[in-house]
């Protein structure tokens, strides 16, 4: 099972924010973080914590969420952003989408609908060319199956290599070898752990400065873990 996905909820309505956080925590699918203002959201987005998505209220005490969304897009932040608003007027919806938001939900909304939309946007983003993961000195682009180094050089990955990196990143912890085999290769009885170890060996030759002393793709707890 992949690791829980961090989501930042930015809303000054404490009751609604609490309900969203509680719902996001169900089944451990997401790890919600809270912000009651744009200033608080900016601090959380700048402290190095990775967020997979942002739920952003339009009307906040220190500014308009749509302007904040536009600034995030101008800074190159591409994660899915769903705007939350008290108005469903067409002009407001258009303004929200024009600011770079992926979706726009008017209050009151059904929590299950919000979660369904959130999952859909996350799936779409993961498969887009915009999806990019910071991985040590590299930027990993899963859809393109490539790593970009700090000089702009490209490292090509096979489909299986990209799948291994993507799953380990999502897990956020050590993953047993058997789990990786089942996820990446499926339930194929003809595939052994030797197959996985061969792919990990080749990956390390591509991404590690010293493959014999791995710092990015490390062996841990009977499996493998990313140290991004």
TrEMBL record:
Pfam families: Response_reg (PF00072), Trans_reg_C (PF00486). Residues 130-228 form the OmpR/PhoB-type domain. Residues 130-228 bind DNA. One of its GO terms (cellular component) is cytosol. The modification 4-aspartylphosphate is found at residue 57. InterPro entries: CheY-like_superfamily, OmpR/PhoB-type_DNA-bd, Sig_transdc_resp-reg_C-effctor, Sig_transdc_resp-reg_receiver, WalR-like, WH-like_DNA-bd_sf. GO terms for biological process: regulation of DNA-templated transcription. GO terms for molecular function: phosphorelay response regulator activity; transcription cis-regulatory region binding. This is Two component transcriptional regulator MtrA. Keywords: DNA-binding, Phosphoprotein, Two-component regulatory system. Residues 6-122 form the Response regulatory domain. The lineage of its organism: Bacteria, Pseudomonadati, Pseudomonadota, Alphaproteobacteria, Acetobacterales. It comes from the Bacteria.
């Amino acid at each position: 099972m992949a690791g829980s996905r961090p989501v930042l909820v930015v809303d000054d309505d404490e009751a609604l924010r609490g309900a969203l956080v509680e719902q996001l925590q169900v089944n451990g699918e997401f790890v919600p973080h809270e912000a009651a203002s744009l200033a608080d959201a900016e601090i959380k987005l700048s402290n190095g914590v990775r967020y997979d998505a942002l739920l952003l209220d339009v009307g906040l005490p220190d500014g308009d969420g749509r302007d904040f969304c536009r600034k995030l897009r101008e800074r190159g932040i591409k994660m899915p952003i769903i705007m939350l608003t008290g108005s469903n007027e067409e002009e407001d919806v258009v303004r929200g989408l024009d600011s770079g938001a992926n979706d726009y939900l008017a209050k009151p909304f059904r929590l299950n609908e919000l979660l369904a939309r959130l999952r859909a946007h996350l799936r779409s983003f993961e498969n887009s060319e915009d999806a990019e993961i910071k991985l040590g000195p590299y930027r990993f682009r899963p859809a393109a199956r490539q790593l970009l180094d700090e000089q702009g050089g490209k490292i090509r990955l096979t489909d299986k290599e990209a799948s291994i990196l993507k799953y380990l990143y999502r897990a956020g912890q050590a993953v047993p070898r058997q789990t990786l085999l089942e996820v990446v290769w499926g339930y194929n009885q003809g595939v052994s752990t030797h197959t996985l170890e061969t792919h990990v060996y080749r990956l390390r030759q591509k991404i590690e400065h010293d493959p014999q002393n791995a710092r990015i793709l490390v062996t841990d707890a009977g499996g493998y873990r990313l140290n991004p």
